Amino acid sequence: MENETRAERFERCYRLYRNMLYRICIVYLKNEADAEDAIHDTFLRLMERDVCFQSAEHEKAWLIVVAGNICKDRLRHWSRQLCSVDELAGQLAANDPEPETGETLSRILHLPERLILPVYLYYYEGYRTADIARMLNLNPSTLRNRLREARLLLRTQWKEV
Amino acid sequence: MKDPAIVQAWDQLKLSPAADRRLYDAIRRSLAAREAAAAGDFQMTAGSGASAVSAHTPVFGIPAVPVVSAVPAVSAVTGIPAAPARPAAGPDAVHNRRARGESARSRWLKPAALTAAACLLLTVALLPVLDRLRRPAGETVGRPASEVSGQPGEPSPEASNPAVWRPDPDLKPYRLRAEEREVGGSMGYPIFSYKDISQNESLDLAALGIRPVHLPIYRNLTYAGQKLSAETLLRRLHDLAARYGDTVAERSVVPLYENENRTESNGQQPEAYYGEGRLYLYYADSTGCKVLLKTPVAMPDGLRLYDFGNPAEAEAFETDPEAVYEAQRARVTAAFDWLYERYVHLFGFKQPAVSPATYGYDYSGQRHYGVPAVVDTGGATDTERLVAAVFSRGKFLTEYRPFGLPDSYLAGQPDTGDDRPGAQTNLFYGVAFQWFDLSESLGDYPIMTPAQARTELANGRYFMVIPDPPADLANRVVRCDLVYLTGSFNKDYVPYYRFTVELPPELVARLRTPDGVEPTEDPLPLKHYTFAYVPAIDPAYIAPPGHGDIAMFN
């Protein structure tokens, strides 16, 4: 990555991380427009700051943390357009060609907010709990409890179905 | 670890193609605007690699990128045509929102603009006082009107007695090739917006009395991103480490992550080197170097060199953006001053000077800042001082508690209770500076005076990136700097007079708006500027006689 020009760095990062950031931002903001803005700001921050990344993993983790911070800032903002999980799930389901998958996603999005991102980072991105705990600034045992809680809730929902 | 059902579900959650195109386009536009403004900051400061305009000089080791249009025809990422014309006024998030028909900002924009204007008047009144307070003793303030007008100002000792220098009788005329007009590149046109050019406070070398009458041309030994040879690199690293009281034994020159078996995504190891003591020496690229402290220093609470998004101020920003940005600017300045006082020696500059962060406005009328830079203005002659100022500059590296660094890196950092990961303590962890190889000089050439260069400008012998420049360009000059073009694709480093010219608003509106879309009004009554370049070498020493094919550019 050291040989990259700015443009190349942006192209690579955008290609690699845009959907990951979209998932993180939409989990926080529950609004596609706000999520896009948050991704926009995240990439700008990446390009503006001369952060010395030790590795691609470091870069990715930095983006996750920064995107989360930007989303939290936006959540505090009074002008933010609020959107419910149901609305979001409805929007997403409308675009979803596979209803079954959409149903799973809807269930995940209906989990308590504090559980969604750990589920994403653990089950999808494949991070270790220790890494996720550092990224989300949580005690590792708290993080493990949250994952356990999420598993339990998802299992219960699936059984109900 | 991965659950197939959950993975499949998350896979469904991704940007739609339309959103993807929209977002990609918006980010590139924002980057173009900011990069251009940042380039303005730097180049205008000390006239370094005039890579300026559409091109950042590789100020911090980031090589210039090829010029690309503001709206790429085909997205390199998605492989699909770029987004169709949007209301192009704004690249920033607010414009994403606007493009979607939302108007979160429109409610407050006009009252904010009025308030901002009032604040600006107050600020402008106070700026000279503040500026005088924070500049080093002996540093002059402001620009002489004669310099702006293209006339030589108070002559320096060297300039007043050019007889002390004569060109080498065997000096061959320099053939100015098309490549030398490469001003690097970035995304979009290099337009800098201010309420007035006086908002650009960047370091003016002429105002410091640096007015050389001759300048060398150097061969770019790292043309097109070539790296230094291993021997040269190692020798320079040894020298650098020695200057820091550290050592780099040959056996310890290993990639930083070798022990962790990590590689970058392109499969290459970063070129980082352990000092044996307290440093990492980091060869960022062909023209940049970083020295990182193995033990970073926690800056005092409240001091942050990057402080552009304080959430506590988000609400205040809605009603009084100028006041918020002024507060941020004051904090950035305070942080820089703290660093400068303690660590400016780390650059090893003979006579360090501060190039304050300039501030301007992006397409959407939002303020933005750069970060102050440290520039070397030392040397026995004006020529040496200018070369130092162009090629020796750097910045402090700070970051909120960096994520991903080993725990040992963070040991002893206080927990402030800030719930945002990575935001606990602002760390000073090193310096970055330019590292040009100037070992091959093509000769010391006599240069024109600013007034002569302005005549050349008036006669159309210049180049610039903006298409269809106004005919009365010479009358639109607001500033003149002596710079070098130092882009990666300049085969030689050649000096230029860089004129900052004010652009007609209607031209800017046209450039910023895709074809077929009605240009939108500026959200704030801003003035827009760009650069025009005139080769600084005396025309008698450019082959073919005159200006080569320089005039063919326009």
Describe this structure as you would to a colleague:
The complex is a heterodimer of chains A (about 160) and B (about 550). Chain A has eight helices and no strands. Chain A is mainly alpha-helical. The mean pLDDT of chain A is about 80. With about 550 residues, chain B is of the alpha+beta class. Chain B has 13 helices and 17 strands. Chain B has helices spanning about 5-10, 15-45, 95-100, 105-135, 145-150, 155-160, 230-245, 315-320, 320-345, 380-390, 405-410, 450-460, 505-510, and strands spanning about 175, 190-195, 215-220, 270-275, 280-285, 290-300, 350-355, 360, 365-370, 375, 395-400, 425-435, 440-445, 475-485, 490-505, 525-535, 540-545. A seven-stranded antiparallel β-sheet of chain B has the order 4-5-6-12-11-10-7, sandwiched between helices. In chain B, strands 2, 3, 13, 14, 15 and 16 form a six-stranded antiparallel β-sheet that branches. In chain B, strands 1-17 form a two-stranded parallel sheet. In chain B, strand 14 and strand 15 (about 490-505) form a beta hairpin. In chain B, helix 4 packs parallel to helix 9. The longest helix of chain B is centred in the N-terminal third of the chain and has 30 residues, at about 15-45. Chain B is globular and about 75 Å long. Chain B starts with a helix and ends in an 11-residue tail after the last strand. Classes of the chains: A mainly alpha (about 160), B alpha+beta (about 550). Chains A and B meet through helix 1, helix 2, helix 3, helix 5 and helix 6 of A and helix 1, helix 2, helix 3, strand 5 and helix 8 of B.
